[in-house]
Specification:
The complex is a heterodimer. By secondary structure, chain A is of the alpha/beta class. Helix content of chain A is 44%, strand content 16%. Chain A has 2 domains: 2-57 and 374-461, no CATH class; 65-368, no CATH class. Chain B is α+β, with helices and mostly antiparallel strands. Chain B has helices at 2-19, 103-114, 237-251, 256-263, 271-281; strands at residues 26-33, 40-44, 47-49, 56-58, 62-65, 71-76, 83-86, 147-150, 152-154, 157-159, 166-172, 177-183, 187-189, 193-195, 198-206, 209-218. At the A-B interface, helix 3, strand 13, strand 14 and helix 10 of A face strand 1, helix 2 and strand 16 of B.
């Protein structure tokens, strides 16, 4: 066997080196995969970085979206906040007036991105309570924020009560939801939570996220109800979340994998253990003062509009109180704040944005793509093998530094080529093959250095002299290893290092 | 080769083709107008539409202004400044360019943005305080809502509830500082200023926390009417002042700061005035009088 290999090596040295290189690449890739979980830090960072780049590329190359809801962001901007006298707590009377006007304007759903748990003026609280308690069953779905209290002694957090809990009790079209996302160590928000677990009065609860509830409404409005389950969207969501209810408040989690919404079948919303399914594919960056944000979508009233229309809250309040607000029909309306002192600003892969726009991005991504998913196993293996073979070929024929640049260009081309699949929610995880290729490259370099050390001994640590006779004479070695050997050799012949 | 060129040209032209599809495109909204709504008409594809605040504007809409003195303000995509239409410039179709992204321009943008040469300083100040911690957080319940005060020449007393040294500034609406100082003890007086009717701002800062509020000065004619008995010269002046403060505070939460002006000067010498001053600084007010 060894003899056969030696014979093959002497007859086809390049092919032999290439085969060894490919084998090394496959072994490195298998070793990396074996480390998952726990994921190696370098793999996680490369995965996040490549996904961030893909998100930015998708955002910059997406001009139009089909089958997407249109949004209106009623923005409590800096000017509105100043007009209101910089209150510490969003005035409940203003919230009531905004909700009343928006609800009258026939939107698809209303998302109030204001935590109502903070106490407001008693009279204004009473006004908002009255509005919520008389909210018609025929009015659009209204999603409110439920914040959580982390209790160190308890396994699950407590839902923070609000002065409006009794007013909305029993109303099918008003729902308290969680606005939670996950922030990474570098401060970027990349992943969502589709629900939050909590415990109230020794009873476990599952609180759906605001983006999940809104996406369920939008998906049903766009694709219709599933043929076998014509229930309202929020009822279907409650049924889909039931299997995720913890058995008790002791913190033992219920099964964390499963499908919440399988309609349409091509873009399900599912909970999975993998990291990819939690990624938010952001499409709308923030721009202060903009009238519209994001790509073009079909307007619910005909024609086209930008994905998010931004309207200052002060204008919504200044409009005719007896008439519906124009331009809201059929849209998802988000009432939130972009004023600088809100404390609700977050870093994302496409820049800083107010929390309300993060919710818009999450709703849009869930509606368009469902939860992101990885390509099929066969596709992943093919891509990994392609990258390994490419890396091996490059390192066999090019200098390591040139091979590294060429490989980076190859991965760049792969990202550009796969962008349309990425836009449809298929996230190609390039981290393992990319890290594998880098390690492979590193391994090749280490082998070369070892050979040099063996040949030169301690002199290897010395810097080769630039004006070596061999180089000046133009000996013409393509291999840096050979250059170093000549350089050191000539120096040694003249009696030592100069 | 020709096939490749054709494909590239097709890809580059795709967004333009979509733009030219003839579909109406929303490009902005009506921000404000200074005459009744029937002084204007939005003509959209030949069909007149009612004007309202936030009414959508479509690409190619024509605005008609019937009143020669009227004007209407629009906010459009891709423009930082508003567009104002009056009788002088009405009739021209409103158009603007909705930012279009082609694959190639997007790819170029993305590639060039990936090569960052210079450091972008992205620091911002953060407040390392816990929201709602009464002992540490700056608190001024007296200024929880915009306050109404009576115009005239006088020193203005301002109170806050935290036992912290604070920086106080009173500014005009345009940002000109009228009075400023550093104070502790929960109460501070401005110099005597001739307050004109209009809006002012007050800012109280300590550490990273700032409380801001609007002060609306109104002429005495437009202020709450005091009951006649409060002007009775037979009653002692400190008693009249306390009663006047209680009346203002009970009548309307917007008059809490005005109420403070009557009792704060006597807070060191009169026990009733001190009690009322502390209550007002804490944002507490007497129960409103029963409806007649």
């Amino acid at each position: 066997m060894v003899t056969t290999l030696k014979s093959w090596k002497s007859r086809h040295p390049v092919l032999f080196e290439l085969s060894i290189s490919i084998l090394l690449g496959i072994l490195i890739e298998l070793a990396l995969l074996a480390f998952q979980p726990p994921t190696l830090l370098v793999v996680r960072r490369v995965a996040d970085d490549t996904a961030d780049r893909m998100i930015r590329l998708a955002e910059r190359t997406t001009d139009r979206l089909t089958a997407s809801p249109a949004f209106t962001f009623i923005d409590i901007d800096d000017e509105t906040w100043t007009d209101w006298g910089w209150p510490l707590v969003t005035p409940r009377g203003k919230i009531e007036a905004l909700l009343e006007r928006v609800a009258r304007s026939e939107p698809l759903a209303i998302l109030l991105d204001v935590d109502l748990a903070f106490p407001g003026d008693a009279d204004e609280e009473a006004t908002l309570r009255r509005f919520l308690s008389t909210y018609s069953a025929a009015a659009p779905p209204l999603l409110l924020v439920r914040s959580l209290i982390d209790d160190r002694g308890a396994a699950l957090p407590l839902p923070r009560p609000t002065p409006y809990d009794d007013a909305v009790k029993g109303k099918g079209n008003i729902l308290f939801t969680s606005p939670l996302f996950e922030r990474d160590g570098d401060g970027n928000v990349r992943r969502w939570r589709l629900f939050a677990e909590a415990c109230a009065e020794d009873r476990p609860l599952v609180i759906p996220s605001m983006h999940l509830a809104a996406a369920m409404i939008a998906r049903q409005a766009i694709h219709g109800a599933p043929p076998d389950d014509p229930a309202p969207a929020l009822d279907r969501m409650r049924a889909g979340l039931a299997p995720f209810l913890p058995p008790d408040c002791s913190g033992h989690e219920a099964s964390r994998e499963g499908v919440i919404d399988d309609w349409p079948a091509a873009i399900p919303i599912a909970i999975a253990q993998d990291d990819v399914s939690k990624r938010v594919i952001y499409r709308v960056p923030w721009k202060t003062g903009a009238v519209g944000l994001g790509p073009m979508v079909e307007s619910p009233t005909g024609g086209e509009t930008q994905l998010v229309a931004v309207r200052p809250a002060r204008l919504a309040l200044a409009a005719d109180p007896a008439a519906p607000l124009p331009g809201l029909k059929g849209r998802i309306v988000v009432i939130g704040g972009s004023f600088a002192g809100s404390g609700d600003w977050h870093d994302t892969p496409i820049g800083r944005m107010p929390g309300s726009l993060m919710i818009v991005n999450a709703v849009e991504a869930l509606t368009q793509n469902g939860t992101p998913r990885e390509p099929s196993a066969m596709e992943q293996i093919t891509i990994s093998l392609t990258i390994i073979v490419l890396a091996s070929l490059l390192t066999s024929f090019l200098r390591p530094s040139v091979a590294a640049w060429a490989l980076a260009f190859g991965i760049f081309v792969l990202m550009v080529v796969s962008i349309s699949r990425f836009k449809s929610g298929v996230m190609l995880d390039l981290a393992v093959p990319a890290v594998g290729a880098v390690l492979h490259d590193l391994g090749e370099s280490v082998v070369k250095v070892m050979r040099e050390v063996r040949a030169q001994g301690w002199r290897w640590i010395l810097k080769p002299h630039e004006r070596s006779p061999a180089i000046v004479a133009g000996v013409g070695h393509g291999d840096i290893h050979a250059d170093i050997q000549h350089d050191v050799g000539s120096s040694a012949g003249e009696g030592g290092t100069k | 080769m020709m096939r490749w060129i054709t494909a590239i040209v097709f890809l580059a032209a795709a967004p333009l083709a979509a733009l030219a599809s003839g579909k109406p495109v929303e490009i902005g909204y009506v921000e404000s107008f200074d005459r009744p709504a029937d002084a204007y008409v939005i003509v959209s594809d030949g069909v007149p539409k009612k004007v309202a605040i936030l009414a959508p504007i479509l690409n190619g809409d024509v605005i008609e202004v019937k009143d020669p003195a009227a004007s209407i303000t629009l906010r459009l995509v891709g423009r930082d400044d508003p567009m104002i239409i009056s009788a002088a410039n009405q009739g021209t179709p409103v158009t603007t360019e909705v930012p279009q992204k082609s694959f190639w321009s997007g790819l170029f943008d993305w590639t060039s943005a990936s090569v960052e040469v210079f450091d972008k300083e992205q620091r911002e100040q953060v407040s390392a305080s816990i929201r709602g911690d009464d002992e540490k957080e700056l608190s001024a319940p007296l200024l929880a809502a915009p306050q109404t005060l009576i115009a005239g020449k006088r020193a203005l007393a301002i109170g806050w509830a935290s036992p912290r040294t604070v920086e106080i500034r009173v500014l005009t609406k345009g940002g000109k500082v009228l009075a400023e100082g550093r104070a502790s003890g929960g109460l501070w007086l401005t110099p005597v200023i001739d307050w004109k009717a209009g809006s002012y701002r007050v800012e109280i800062s300590a550490g990273g926390d700032t409380v801001r509020q609007t002060l609306q000065f109104v002429s005495p004619k437009k202020a709450l009417k005091l009951p006649a008995e409060l002007s009775d010269p037979a009653a002692p002046t400190p008693l009249r002042a306390s009663a006047t403060a209680a009346f203002y505070a009970a009548s309307d939460p917007a008059y809490l700061l005005e109420a403070l002006q009557y009792v704060a000067p006597d807070a060191r010498t009169s026990r009733p005035a001190k009690l009322l001053t502390l209550a007002l600084i804490d944002g507490k007010r007497p129960a409103p009088p029963p409806a007649p």
